[in-house]
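We close this part of the discussion by returning to an individual protein. The encoding preserves chain order, so positions in sequence and tokens coincide. The sequence in question and its structure tokens are set out directly beneath this paragraph:

===
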Amino acid sequence: QVQLVESGGGLVQAGGSLRLSCAASGRTFGGYVMGWFRQAPGKEREFVASITWSGGFTYYADSVKGRFTISRDNAKNTVSLQMNSLKPEDTGNYSCATRLAGIREYEYWGQGTQVTVSS
């Protein structure tokens, strides 16, 4: 059974940094894509960034380009999201998810970790 467990959220002032981690277990993830999403109160969930487990190809939402970096550690089966120059609008519940490459829908989701950026 696939499990995704996020950690690293918290409260930070605008301009600060946080590093989120997603520990993945339950299968081998070669051929999968790992993604980070966020949802602010009263808003729809939005895509933040993704990385292919094999090859490490990355993709970012325009709103986070140049500030966030997604990476993976194959040996530890973890995916991280380094968030710099945080803004109040980055506040939300951040979840990691995974899907097979070539499949549009993310199949497995973590519970999420809260990120709050104060102004």
Notes: Residues 7 and 21 are 5 Å apart (CA to CA). The two ends are 40 Å apart (CA to CA). The first strand starts at residue 3 and ends at 7. The chain has a mean pLDDT of 96.
